[in-house]
C-alpha cells in the first residue's frame, strides 16, 4: 500500500476540519500563519488549522515570549523604585494629609513581578510533573531572578509539552470591581456565576483566590499576556495610531485614527467607534465636506435667546 502523501492543509482549505480533527489556531486574527483574503471588498482573516490549541508558528512565538520574560523581569526589578507615573505619589493608609511616609515602590511594577513569578512557577511545575520529561526539581525560589530564569527556560524549551497540557486545577486570583462611594468592593456577577461553587483558597480586601481548570491554551494566553504587560510597563509597546481631527463620515464621532496601509489596498483611516474605513481619496472628500459644513455654520449668525420679559 502506497504511503499517503502529506500536504499543507492550507493547500486544500475545503477539507472538513471535523473529519481531520483540526481546529483554528487560538490566536485568531493574530495567528502567525493566518491567511488574509478579501470577500466583497471586506478583509477576512482566517487563522491556521492545527490539531493543537496553537499552530506551529504561534508555538514558536510563545516560546520566544517565554525566553524574553527573564530579561524583562530583571529590568522591571531595576525600575521598581522609579517615580510613579502619577501627579501625586500615593501615601500609606492613615496619612491622608500627606505628612506620613510615601510609597516608594511602583505598585504596578511590583504587582506584575509577583504575577510573573507565580504564573511561570505554576506552569513550570506542571511541565516538570510530566513523567516522560524526567526534569529535575527547581533549585531556586520562584520569585528570584534565578527562579524566574529557570522556570521561563523550562516553558521555552518544552513549549510543545506546555501547550498540550490537559485541563488541571490551578489557583488564580480575581480582583473585585471598585464599589460605590462608601460601599465595600463586591464580587462581580460574572465571577459569582462562573465560580460561585468554588472553594475560596485565599481572600483579601479586593481580591479572592479560587481554583480553576486550566490547560495548555490558557498557558499560551498567560505567557503572551505577561510578555505584553512587561513591554507595556517598559514603554516598549507601539503607541496608539494618530487621532485625526476630521469626524467620521458614518457615525460623526471624532474617533478617526490613521490606519497604516496593509500593502494590498489603499487604507488611510479607521473609526474607533463604528469601524468605518476610508481610503486616502475618501478621507480627502470627507475632510472637505466637514470643512464646508463648519464654514457654512460659521457664516450663519447664531442669535442668543433672550428671556421673556
Query: Per the principal axes of the C-alpha atoms, what is the gross shape?
Result: globular
The main sheet orders its strands as 5-7-6
Poorly predicted ranges (pLDDT <50, ≥5 residues)?
A: 1-19, 86-92
Q: Total domains, how many?
A: 4
Task: Supply the number of helical segments.
Answer: 8
Q: What series of H and E elements makes up the topology?
A: HEEEEHHHHEHEEHEEEH
Terminus-to-terminus distance: 103 Å
Major pleated sheet:
3 strands, antiparallel
Portion in strands:
5-15%
Give the overall average pLDDT. 81
β-strand number: 10
- Please state the structural category: alpha+beta
Keywords:
309 residues; alpha+beta; 4 domains; three-stranded antiparallel beta sheet; 36% helix; disordered N terminus
Please characterize this protein's 3D structure.
- With 309 residues, this protein is α+β, with helices and mostly antiparallel strands.
- The protein folds into four domains: 18-50, no CATH class; 53-85 and 104-167 and 215-237; 170-213, no CATH class; 242-294, no CATH class.
- 36% of the residues lie in helices and 13% in strands.
- It contains eight helices and ten strands.
- The chain has a three-stranded antiparallel sheet with strand order 5-7-6. The protein has a three-stranded antiparallel sheet with strand order 8-9-10. Strands 1-4 form a two-stranded antiparallel sheet.
- A hairpin with a 2-residue loop joins strand 2 (35-39) and strand 3 (42-46).
- The chain is globular, with a radius of gyration of 26 Å.
- The N and C termini lie far apart (103 Å).
- The model is unreliable at 1-19 and 86-92 (pLDDT under 50).
